[in-house]
Specification:
Largest interface: A-B, 60 and 43 residues
Order of helices and strands of chain C: HHHHHHEEHHHHHHHH
CATH class of chain C: Mainly Alpha
Low-confidence stretches of chain A: none
Number of helices of chain C: 14
Mean pLDDT of chain C: 87
Helix content of chain C: over 70%
Chains: A alpha/beta, B mainly alpha, C mainly alpha
Distance between the termini of chain C: 28 Å
CATH topology of chain C: ABC transporter involved in vitamin B12 uptake, BtuC
Largest sheet of chain C: 2 strands, antiparallel
Number of strands of chain C: 2
Order of helices and strands of chain A: EEEHEEHEHHHHEHEHEEHH
Mean pLDDT of chain A: 91
CATH architecture of chain C: Orthogonal Bundle
Strand content of chain A: 15-25%
Oligomer: heterotrimer
Strand order of the largest sheet of chain A: 6-7-8-3-9-10
Radius of gyration of chain C: 21 Å
Largest sheet of chain A: 6 strands, mixed
Shape of chain C: globular
Helix content of chain A: 40-55%
CATH class of the largest domain in chain A: Alpha Beta
């Protein structure tokens, strides 16, 4: 099967600083892949490049065979690549339900005029969006909080809500940026379970993680970054045995 | 849940319409010799009420742009001016230049020109919106400010077209067939009919896919785009819509005054519109009529009282207090009167219902872009 | 081709080309009005006079913006206050020789305006300091309205006069160079700008307070950690801005006729100048002010004087769209702040 995501010689410079230096990797459909590395290794920058928030200095990103270079973030989302953020970015002026409904944005087509005059086709689509959003909330177990303000949820649930919003865009590939950070043990276990369910539903998952044990039990394939460069790649066992990885992490601790 | 929300909106709209219609009817039929201004203790005259209606239309649009989409405009009076001037110029063509003499005198010509003005102003907003909305926050505020000031200055410059500083006169009254929408009692119904229509449109929008997209862009453009929302497109749409509303209000103003001159469209007017929106409450459609009304009433009261106290006739001394009120509102109730009073009531209800008040953070943060 | 204009040399070529195109356009329009070379000199000199005032105001904007993130609309009102307070104090029947009387009036006006600036910050910005900058900016609009209406109440709607500094009378010395004329007050304005710049430089570089202010502008949290009180620095920035504005108003007084609403347009122009300089840079503000003054005066001179302000705001929008970092700035801080 062709890879769902191909990253080739991706490079990002910030005023002379190499945040990402010629990184290449593939993601196969149906896999759970994790990118790990010490702080400042360029993990979040790679996510920002993949999701179109930042333009790469050079290199290519192909998603389902199509290049993403130069595409706007919302177009990339429309192609089936969704993401979450390291610091949860919910819409604080909306309810839990409405947050997920924003994720359904491209599942409807009605425009300004239809909405302004409440034309029948707008109402029909709106009804449809509601049902979809509710289904996504049920998926992450938040349906009973649907009408509460999004930021009234405890932090762990805010993470789940952000994932529900991302899933509402109907992605083929889901990027989770440090989805486990700030969660307690049982919440992490729940998250791990949810990620497995998401994969079982046919969505490929790419994680950026910091918490090594969490990733080792979950990921099929791991990519290790250090100072913007890929230093190792393979199954969890292969990566754990790699001397450069050990050195990078020990070096950081020393 | 959904049905409840929609019903509450409907009830509000109907109640609002009935009250306004009743007030208007009083002035037409004068039961027991009552008139509008007598009912309100001479604080609000029919003239004031019409002006409030006209500005409500502008502020509803500004609220969509600022309150919901989060894009500050300090030049909204510019769009308001464009509407007034387009309407004024186009509807007086016949008397001034005898262009299309047969048609421009017909009753529907001014109505058609109101629509044309809205299209022209909307088109202008679209053209300037694309580049200008790339700017954010203070920078956007300043660019729109510049735009408004330019329109204001240019309006006073071309005597052949705009009438220069003296302005245009002879803007015709509106009529439907041979039924003239004048005296004021009739015009009142037109203005408030339009205002209510604009409010209904705004309420529908806010609670739709479009409204959610706008609110999402307000909180976090990055998260909105990651959710599939084309932020640029919706910001431009909000600007164009607010410009079209402002243009409609401008046209209604021109046909109300019968004349158009540059002075009501200055930078100060733009600031006042923002103040009205802020006082009513940004991100609250109903805040618009109340914000506008409150500012008008407070200013009129201040003016008459201060003139009596200080024993002076001219000048704009009421602005001192007006400025202080603006500052106080921004300090103590940055979310506006409507939102603050609603919160106050909800707080009370919660305490009575023994539900723990939930801590709601005011804003999501944008921090972790490109490490 | 596009790539070329993005590069450093390309940008210089492009900028030079634009400048020459602007000069050519200016000369062509001027020739249609039959302007002679001395007319251009006159227009430039007058433009530099107005530009010096814009520069003083732009400095006020920059100081407040860098420390607090607020665009202080009341900057123009400080100019008005400076001029009005000065001429009011000057009119008091003090038993002093005329020159000393003017000096006393100038100093008293600057001090009073500075105190008003500090009071404005304490009363309006400080209580709302946790609000987003746009809210604070709107607050300064409210302050502007109040100050202007207060001035109307105090001084009425008629324009006043302030004597020229050299002659201590309404008639100023006039230097003639052929048909080009230069008022002595213009020299006072330029001199004041230079003195203010030197003093400001000394204050920011060589006093503890000035260093604290700069620290606060660079990194507020860091400044707080080393014991600088950001609230006090915010007040100081407003006081400094008010002083700069008042000085501008006082030296401008004799060449315009001070009136209660003079602050509005001056404030907006000062802001345009600050934006031209990138809103965060002191030298940028000065260059921006002078350039704005000269440009708008030349543009108005070769077309129609009533369009003078239009040019200023067209420049504002053009700068915001194409060079939000200002005309001098590289791709530094200002672009980062355009978020």
């Amino acid at each position: 099967m062709p890879p769902i995501l191909e990253v080739k010689n991706l490079r990002k410079e910030f005023g002379g600083l190499m945040a990402v230096f010629d990184v290449s990797f593939d993601v196969q459909p149906g896999e759970i892949v994790a990118i790990i590395g010490p702080n400042g290794a360029g993990k979040t920058t790679i996510f920002n490049l993949l999701s179109g928030v930042l333009p790469p200095t050079r290199g290519d990103i192909r998603f389902d065979g199509q290049s993403l270079i130069g595409l706007k973030p919302h177009v990339i989302t429309g192609l089936g690549l969704a993401r979450t953020f390291q610091s949860v970015q919910l819409f604080g002026n909306m309810t839990v339900m409405e947050n997920v409904m924003v994720g359904c944005h491209q599942q409807a087509t009605y425009g300004l005029i239809d909405a302004a005059f409440r034309l029948p086709h707008a109402r029909r689509e709106e009804h449809h969006i509601r049902e979809r959003a509710l289904a996504q909330l049920a998926h992450v177990g938040l349906e009973s909080h649907a009408e509460e303000p999004a930021l009234s949820l405890p932090f762990g649930r805010q993470r789940l809500l952000e994932i529900a919003r991302a899933l509402a865009t109907v992605p083929h590939l889901l990027l989770l940026d440090e989805a486990g950070s700030g969660l307690n043990h049982s919440e992490k276990a729940e998250l791990e379970q949810l990620i497995r369910v998401i994969r079982a539903g046919g969505v490929t998952v790419l994680l950026v993680e910091h918490d090594i044990p969490f990733v080792m039990s979950l990921a099929d394939h791991i990519i290790v970054l250090d100072y913007g460069q890929k230093i190792a790649e393979g199954t969890p066992d292969q990566v754990q045995a790699d001397e450069r990885v050990i050195a990078a992490y020990l070096g950081q601790e020393a | 849940m959904k049905a409840l929300w929609a019903r509450r909106n409907l009830v509000n709209v109907i109640a609002f319409t009935v009250v306004l219609a009743a007030l208007g009817a009083v002035d037409i039929f004068r039961p027991f010799g009552l008139s509008f201004s007598a009912l309100t203790g001479r604080v609000v005259t029919l003239d004031t009420m019409i002006r409030i209606g006209i500005l409500t239309i502008v502020v509803v649009g500004l609220n969509l742009l600022m309150g919901y989409a989060g894009q500050v405009s300090l030049g909204q009076a510019g769009f308001y001016a464009l509407g007034a001037y387009f309407s004024g110029i186009l509807s007086t063509l016949a008397t001034r230049h005898t262009i299309l003499p047969g048609i421009t005198g017909l009753w529907w010509w001014p109505w058609l020109m109101i629509v044309v003005s809205m299209i022209l102003t909307g088109g202008f907003a679209y053209l300037v919106g694309k580049p200008i909305l790339r700017l954010k926050g203070n920078y956007l505020a300043m660019a729109t400010l510049g735009l408004g000031v330019i329109i204001h200055i240019l309006a006073g410059q071309f005597p052949d077209i705009t009438g220069g500083y003296d302005g245009l006169t002879g803007v015709p009254r509106l009529s439907i067939g041979s039924f003239t929408l004048w005296p004021m009692q009739r015009y009142y119904f037109l203005v408030w009919g339009a205002a209510i229509a604009v409010i209904v449109i705004s309420l529908s929008l806010v609670d739709s896919r479009i409204g959610r997209a706008l609110r999402a862009v307000h909180t976090s453009e990055v998260a909105a785009e990651a959710s599939g929302v084309d932020a640029e497109q919706y910001k431009v749409q909000a600007l164009v819509l607010s410009a079209i509303f402002a243009s409609l209000a401008g046209s209604l103003y021109a046909h109300f005054q019968g004349a158009v001159s540059p002075s009501p469209f200055s930078f100060r007017a733009s600031v006042e519109l923002v103040v009205m929106a802020a006082v009513g409450g940004l991100a609250s459609t109903w805040g618009a009529p109340f914000g506008v009304g409150l500012i008008y009433v407070v200013r009129d009261l201040l003016k008459s009282q201060l003139e009596r106290l200080l024993n002076v006739r001219s000048g704009e001394y009421e602005l001192i207090v007006y400025g202080i009120i603006l500052v106080s509102i921004m300090i103590f109730m940055p979310e506006g009167l409507t939102a603050s009073s609603v919160q106050f009531m909800q707080g009370r209800r919660r305490r009575h219902g023994n539900i723990e008040p939930q801590r709601v953070q005011s804003n999501g943060t944008v921090e972790d872009l490109g490490q | 081709m596009r790539q070329f204009f993005r590069g450093k040399i390309g940008k210089i070529v492009l900028a030079t080309g634009l400048v020459f195109a602007a000069i050519a356009l200016c000369v062509w329009l001027g020739s249609r009005q039959r302007l002679l070379p001395q007319h251009y000199v006159q227009l430039t000199l007058d433009g530099m006079r107005g530009g010096s005032i814009y520069a003083l105001m732009a400095l006020g904007f920059v100081v407040v913006y860098r420390v607090t993130g607020v665009i202080n609309f009341a900057q123009g009102e400080f100019v008005m206050l400076g001029a009005m307070l000065c001429l009011t104090i000057h009119k008091l029947p003090l038993p002093l020789p005329p020159a000393l009387k003017l000096i006393v009036a100038i100093i008293a006006a600057i001090v009073l305006a500075t105190l008003i600036g500090a009071a404005v910050e304490r009363l309006t910005i400080h209580p709302a300091r946790r609000s987003p900058p746009v809210t604070l900016t709107i607050i300064t609009v409210g302050v502007t309205i109040t100050l202007r209406a207060g001035a109307l109440l105090a001084w009425g709607a008629d324009p006043y006069v302030l004597p020229a500094f050299s002659t201590l009378a309404l008639e100023d010395h006039i230097f003639r160079f052929g048909s080009v004329i230069l008022q002595a007050q213009t020299l006072w304005i330029w001199g004041t700008l230079i003195v203010v710049l030197v003093l400001l430089y000394f204050f920011l570089e060589h006093t503890i307070m000035g260093k604290a202010l700069r620290a606060c502008a660079v990194n507020q949290r860091g400044a707080q950690l080393v014991g600088i009180n950001p609230g006090r620095m915010s007040m100081l920035s407003f006081a400094l801005a008010a002083a700069l504005g008042a000085i501008g108003g006082i030296v401008l007084g004799p060449v315009t006729r001070p009136i209660y609403d003079m602050g509005l347009m001056l404030g907006l122009k000062g802001f345009v100048a600050a934006i031209m300089g990138g809103l965060v840079s002191v030298p940028g503000a000065v260059v921006g002010g002078l350039l704005l003054g000269v440009t708008e005066n030349l543009a108005a001179g070769v077309t129609n004087p009533t369009y003078k302000s239009v040019f200023a705001f067209v420049i504002l929008i053009a700068i915001l769209l194409f060079r939000p970092q200002g005309i001098l700035g590289g791709t530094g801080q200002a672009t980062e702040e355009v978020k």
